[in-house]
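Board notes, transcribed. Complex of a protein with zinc ion.
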Amino acid sequence: MNKNKSYSCKGIVVALKANFFIVEIDFQDSKQFSEKIRFLCTRRNKLDHQGLFINVGDIVFVEAIDYINKRAVISQVEPRESFLKRPAVANVTLIAICISVEEPSFDSDQTSRFLITAEASNIKPLVILTKIDLMNKNDLKVYIDKLKSWGYDSLPVSIKNIESIDLLIQRFRQTRLTVLAGPSGVGKTSLINNLIPSLSLPTSAVSKKLKRGIHTTRHVELFAIGNGSLLADTPGFNCPEIVSDINGFANFFPEFRAQLINSKCKFRNCLHRDEPGCVIDKNIERYSFYRENLEEMINSHLPYQGD
Ligand SMILES: Nc1nc2c(ncn2[C@@H]2O[C@H](COP(=O)(O)OP(=O)(O)OP(=O)(O)O)[C@@H](O)[C@H]2O)c(=O)[nH]1
Ligand SMILES: [Mg+2]
Ligand SMILES: [Zn+2]
């Protein structure tokens, strides 16, 4: 294990705490023995001047390493391969969108908004249907089929079903950095506690009155899940904002993309509203969601006409 002070080491930002960064460094010796150590870090002023914002998931170089007090200074940030804006995580390779059908109940628009966030960041989403112990098999099939018709695979899980947890571990170990995202109270932190039994992160029951989660997790944090893979717990939020330009919006819907592969609309810039020669089937489930949000975008782009 090389702990020579003059070295600069590569690590990953696993959490932000006030004005500090928690950086995890994997020290490996010649016998392949590995020890992961977390350091409380500040950053060199020059990074501020370069306007570089450091986020969880960033690969960084640290120097001035104090092994006794576990302190160091970030001197360099590697270019990002991807960036998810909300929750803010760099270098994400998979977004696992956690959605429950009961407690809190399934909300189609909210689920679509999470999916669109992933599509807009160009990061592959996977839907995890949580708390399946609270529903019967027929209902579960309805939701799996619904998501399939939108173009998404889903993995049904429950913390009360060990096999489903094992399947999740296998899935997450195949990808470098998975973010668990989704509304508050769907069970993201509970899943992590079950996937990594040495953790006991705080969780809380869904509010009976509001029928929603109470925002228990407040910060993004990365945890090692084996095979060099990382998993991010994130604070739940209930209404992700849609960020899209008018012409690119339809492209965020896999079921629209599938229709446009086989046939083309008459007009190249067709918005799939009421244009002649439009090939999009207006009876598909999410057309009304698309249309309402598109009209909102169009209206907010109209020049002000006066009162
Ligand atoms: N029945 C059942 N309850 C679950 C399951 N998973 C989580 N819960 C419960 O759901 C509640 C909310 O769980 P959390 O893990 O705090 O939810 P979260 O998504 O992390 O919520 P935020 O941190 O607020 O975003 C807790 O009371 C859990 O015990 C499950 O598989 N089945
Ligand atoms: Mg949580
Ligand atoms: Zn069209």
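The pocket of magnesium ion (ligand 2) is lined by residues 188-189, 216-217, 233 (CB under 6 Å). The CA atoms of residues 220 and 234 lie 5 Å apart.
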